[in-house]
């Protein structure tokens, strides 16, 4: 028989406190991502989802996130991304549409410059 429902204990981390938390020093706040997990059911993407939501609401990422920062050299346009692909896509699109030169910055990378053709 496989219709046991009493194996919920396996999901309770008694030994390791691995409840995902996220902090934001700019907001001086800490959140427990376990709630996010329940609400959003996005699994281990919860941190990324939280970071994106936080960015939308506050304009900055929480601690522990090293965003790819895209900024235009010629106008105030810019954005922040959690991975390089959308950052690069944004930069290339902006450069193509406006003929502006755009910089992509990340803590682990050299600054890239995307110039219009
Ligand atoms: Zn914040
Ligand atoms: Zn621009």
UniProtKB/TrEMBL annotation:
<feature type="region of interest" description="Disordered">
    <location>
        <begin position="1"/>
        <end position="21"/>
    </location>
</feature>
<feature type="compositionally biased region" description="Basic and acidic residues">
    <location>
        <begin position="1"/>
        <end position="17"/>
    </location>
</feature>
<dbReference type="Pfam" id="PF26258">
    <property type="entry name" value="DUF8062"/>
</dbReference>
<protein>
    <submittedName>
        <fullName>Uncharacterized protein</fullName>
    </submittedName>
</protein>
<dbReference type="InterPro" id="IPR058375">
    <property type="entry name" value="DUF8062"/>
</dbReference>
């Amino acid at each position: 028989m496989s219709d046991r429902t009493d194996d919920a204990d396996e999901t309770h981390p008694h030994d390791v406190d691995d409840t995902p938390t996220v902090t934001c020093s700019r907001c001086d706040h800490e959140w427990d991502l376990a709630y996010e997990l329940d609400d959003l059911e996005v699994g281990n993407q919860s941190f990324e989802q939280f970071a994106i939501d936080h960015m939308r609401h506050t304009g900055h990422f929480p601690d522990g996130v090293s965003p790819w920062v895209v900024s235009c050299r010629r106008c105030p346009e810019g954005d922040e991304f959690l991975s390089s692909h959308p950052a690069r896509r944004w930069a290339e699109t902006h450069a193509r549409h406006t003929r502006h030169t755009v910089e992509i910055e990340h803590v682990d990378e050299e600054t890239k410059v995307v110039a219009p053709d």
